[in-house]
Design goal:
InterPro entries: ABC3_permease_C (IPR003838), Macrolide_Exporter_MacB (IPR050250). By secondary structure, this protein is of the alpha+beta class. Helix content is about 55%, strand content about 20%. The strands form three sheets. It has a six-stranded mixed barrel with strand order 2-3-8-5-7-6. It has a six-stranded mixed barrel with strand order 12-13-19-16-18-17. A two-stranded antiparallel sheet has the order 14-15.
Amino acid sequence: MVGGAMKYLLKKFRREAFKEDGAQLISLIIIVTIGVACFIGFSKSAIDLTRSFNDYYDQARLEDLEIAGVLSPNQVKKIQNLSSIKESNQNYSYQATTNDNKLIIEGTSPRDQINKLTFKSGRYPKKNEIAIDHLYFNKNKLKLGDNIRLTINGIKIKAKISGTIQSPKYLYLTENISEPVPNHQKYGFAIVPKQTFKRIGLPSNLLTVKINNNAEIDQLTKQIHHINQNAYVIKRTDLMSYKMIQSKLTTIKNISIAISGVFMILTIAITLISYSKIVANKKTDLAIFKTLGISKNIILMDLFLPGILTALVGSIIGSIIGTTIFPQIIKSALAILFDFPEIKFTNPTGFIFLSLITIIFVELIALLLNANKLLNETAANAMHPDVSKVNARIFLTKIPAIWQNLSFKTKLLVRNIASGKAKFGLSMIALAFCVTILISSFGLKFALNQIEKSEFIDQRNYDLSANVNSVNLKIQDDSSVTFVDHYSVVPTKIKDLDTHLQIINENSKSIRLISARNKALPFTSLPGVYVSKKLAQKLRLTKGSSVNLKLFLNNEYKQLKTVVQGIYPSYTSQGFYTTYEYLNTKNLTVPIQSQLIKARNINAETKKLNDNPLVKDVISKNKQAENYRNASASVNSILLMIVIIAAMLLFAVIYNISSINISERKRDIATEKVLGLSSFDIDKLIFGENAILVVLSTIIGSIISPLMYNILGNAIASDEVSFPANLEITSFPISIILIFIFLLLTSSFLSRKIKTIDPLSALNGFE
């Protein structure tokens, strides 16, 4: 008997899975796949990338700090003898030009055990040879054995390329912070033997250091400054490459926690609701099994078999996508910024097992919650529909003036919703959550465009930024120039936090700061500083707060006790603003670093500035905006992926819930057919129910989405980045249009399922 029952069970399962309820199971598998893929893909990518970079830093023995500046042999010896220092290398670091390009040239030795190089090709350079950054090498289509001409501090040399290299110190390399996207064709690094610098008479100007595990870096920095007060000490955490990589890794980690968590929770909720309905719809089958004397174990197997299938198939497909496609997308998104070391992929077995167990556990809960009541019900009662459905209470029936004026089909629609109001409510909550994710994802993506407008149109009113070698540069006399303002950035500490202070003229026309209340913040006679909103929230600062800033000027920190005069939103950089005039009243002199220029002819003025020996380099505001777009392309790609995933999940959920509702109401649909309603009329009823469900879910989701937008925005933003506080209004109509397209597609697909329902078999309850 048991063997026959099992054969029938498997035959029945195959028929349901591949014919009757195949689309329903597929939609559930898609939901599970999306949840598992997001969980494994984002979580594993964050872990793999972080571990790969950290392992590479450990293997290459990235410096703990470096001391820039010329040190006497006696000073070097004193520093090396400090108890906190484990080992050090005395090297050279100078900037060189070759044609129109620039290279950081370091003098090293093959015996150096700090910042160990990875040779991509060739060998270590000998006399009159050079090894070049492999990305610069490839971008400029160089070949091993090529000769390049360099100018270092006015000294011209020629060197033959012996190899290509990767350095742990330069995995991210840009010339200055205003150009966040590396230009490997114009800027790179290279190494030569130390003897090269000795031969041309340039002194050693770099000491790289590894410290003991228990060393206090701040205390060590003070000791170094006591030996040489002009020494410029840079900690590992302040290296531009290391800092940028850690910032992006933090962003990926935050995305993995927020997005994978949200999608996995949503998957669990949808699976719980869907599987509960699937079990409830098996009521008639259970009655037949009980009548035939089939054991409870076999019946439970029939109930649990679809769940095992969806969990297994969904987890396997999701694991494959999560371990193959997701890491490549994330790596490709970041490749524009970083020179990746070898990525070490961890074994995904633990993630796969956790996902599978979680989904099966959720389905088991749904089974236990619903099966117990069904198994304890007599076969005769199970063959009849629920009394609660037949006698569903409808509030509108108590208002005759409304109820009596409703059409027959409208009353049917209301009764159908009322008969399953509990499940309707659960479905509405699940759909509302999907809508919230979709709108929030669109909002985050559109926010990148908002940021560009705010930062480069609203806030910056100049055309060109020129880094200058001398304050004697006279640009204002040029007839093609409208105005010129001075600008500087000073590294700043507040408490234990590293930030920066931006300085402009008090009559500056180049920078416009707007408060959160959309009011201009004036610089004229400014008696303090302005602080960015995110930094103010982090430090709990308000207008009128007293702050103690430490400004790094002339290789030492100088105190500035001041007052916050206002707070401004900033999305790409967090810090402070003040004026040269205010700092002068505090006896603080800051050298002018840049000149911000408004020009009538940008191209002509750019050429003039590039030809001027007093100008280091020039960058246009348009180029800065382009660099921002390129730098944000990594986040943009990930957000686009999240939007697509959210849309797919929403479609699968709408289809799944609608499909289950039809399976659940086969008797009702059969009755409606017997009463003379055409398939078109029934389609309209089902569409009406789904439309009401979707509309209510969309309303709830739209109300909640600003909160979810802020939660996700805060989670994925790095320390320097923030998202606009308000959700972009365009996110709503686009999401709503997409939602109703999904509704129409779902109704079109399910109309065939309605047509296949046979009234006689459905009302009899037999197959």
